[in-house]
Structure formats: C-alpha cells, structure tokens
Amino acid sequence: MTEQILGLHHITAIAANAQRNFDFYTKILGLRLVKKTVNFDDPGTYHFYYGNEQGTPGTILTFFPWENIAQGHDGVGMATDIAYAVPANSLDSWKQRLAGFNIAIKEEGKRFGESFISFKDPDGLNLTLVEPVKADTRAPWQTADLKADMATRGFHSTTLSLRRIDGTAAVLTDIFGYKLLAQEGNRYRYTTDAVENAGIIDLLELPDGKPGYNAAGTNHHIAFRVADDTIQMKFREKIISKRLQITPKIDRDYFYSLYFREPGGVLFEIATDNPGFTVDEPLDQLGSALKLPKQYEPIRADIEKELPVLVG
Length: 312
Known about the structure:
By secondary structure, this protein is α+β, with helices and mostly antiparallel strands. It has a single domain, classed as Roll (2,3-Dihydroxybiphenyl 1,2-Dioxygenase, domain 1), CATH 3.10.180.10. It has five helices and 16 strands. It has helices at 18-28, 91-100, 166-175, 229-241, 300-306, and strands at 8-15, 32-39, 42-51, 60-65, 78-85, 107-111, 114-120, 126-131, 154-162, 179-184, 187-191, 200-205, 219-226, 250-251, 255-261, 267-275. An eight-stranded mixed β-sheet has the order 2-3-4-1-13-16-15-14. Strands 6-7-8-5-9-12-11-10 form an eight-stranded mixed β-sheet, covered by helices on one side. The longest helix has 13 residues, at 229-241. The chain starts with 7 loop residues before the first strand and ends in a 6-residue tail after the last helix.
C-alpha cells in the first residue's frame, strides 16, 4: 500500500441556503448528493457531500449551508477556486447550459495549455471547468440531462491565494511529495504523480493581497487523501517534525481527519479513504436519508425540527 498523499480527498465550502445549494449542485452542475448529515460541531446545520456515484475521494465537494450566514469574500490565506475536469470539447455545451440558467461566465481562456471557463455558484463561490490535456478517465455521475459527454469527472485542481508561496510550497514538496510542474506569471502549478487525477494544486502569489472573510461563498478547507489512518498518522509525525501544530485524529464517520494550518494560512486536512460512504447506506441509496453522528441520535427529533426541509 502506497504511503503517499493521493491528491485531493475533498474540499469544504460554506453556503447560505441549503435548498439553493442542493438545487445548484445536483440539478445544474449534475453532482450526486452522496451524504446528507449535519455539522459535527453544529448539528442544527446540514453537512452535504456531493460527488460521483460512490463518493470517490477526489470528487467530493462538501458544504456547511448555514442559513442566512453573512456573505464572505476571498483573500490571501484561502483556497479561492475549485476546478473540475470535464471532457474534451464540452466547454461550449457548458457555456450554453450555464447561460440557460442565467449564470455568467466570469473568465475563459487557456491556463497551462488547458482550456477553461470560470463562473460562480449562487453564493459567489468560484468554480472552474477545465478540459485537461490528458483526458480524465474517471466514470462520471450522469443525470437525465448531463451525460458522459459533458458530466464532470471530479476535481482537476484547486487554487490557493497567498502573499508568499514559499512556506506552502515547502509543505507540498517536503511533506506531501508534490513537485513544481510549471509557472505562468504569479501562478505556480504543483502536481503529484501518486494519482492520475485530482492531483494539482495551484499557488497564486499576491504580495499585496488582503485577507478574505470566511463566510458564504468561500472555501473552509481543503483535504488531502491518504489510503488509511495508519499512513495518516505517519504524516502527522512528519508535520509535527516541521514544527507545525496539528490536531489528533478525529473520526468523521466516513473518514478519519487531521487538521493543520499551513504557513500561508490555508486550513489543510488529511483524510482517509476508509471507511467510506457506504458504511451506513447502500450504494444505491447514498444521500437519501439524514445520517447523524452517533452522539446526536438521541436528539434526532429535535435536530430534524430545526433543519430546513429539503425538497427534491
């Protein structure tokens, strides 16, 4: 078993309305809701997990939809863009689809030789669709109107905005095993050869950048993937050896987690593949029922009364 960081595991962001978030990501972007649970620290708030059919690491985008939370804004010390891989020659179809939902394209062009379009979700979260130079062969989740010729394959990359990239780059290279692939202006692309997909981190250096405000429409943290918690704990020792503070192992029901803030200010997580999303639901029923951490089961009725009713 490989003792490596296996690219991205999941990315977690913040939204201001559960229903609107659910509608956008399942009906417009075409992701599968693979788990409907609650925030471990705030059980009156949902925690949604979107991904492919199985909720494979590297496809999982999660949200804390705190109802009516203030609007956030991006800045240095944050992950500021989430990019999905899509099939070759699908961007024109995506532009037409997004236009049909009155979603404006904010930017389009080529980056490191790959065509992309960027837009925002209803809360202002920055999203990008990329046609990778090397085709992404992961099996997509398909819906009635998003078939394999368009559907997203999972994460392509994420962008971290930083005043200086040095400390963050050192974590990626010295601890996580990433390498600098290329540079375009103030954007530095780091990759790992441990996985074929979801293995790109872009570092955007903004020396005069201002801090962001972490609320609706911003990313909360990014999680890197390891095969299991034995390997995870070896990475914990590596991080401690670099004099970075890191949490103990935390059981998140579907994976085990470690959290630390890298030198540039971004909250990093290391998350395991085990035990996975089918631990409490069969594959064909993922996301269909409200699943609660065991400590909240005794107050399920109270939690269900407090949570917004989700339609669809």
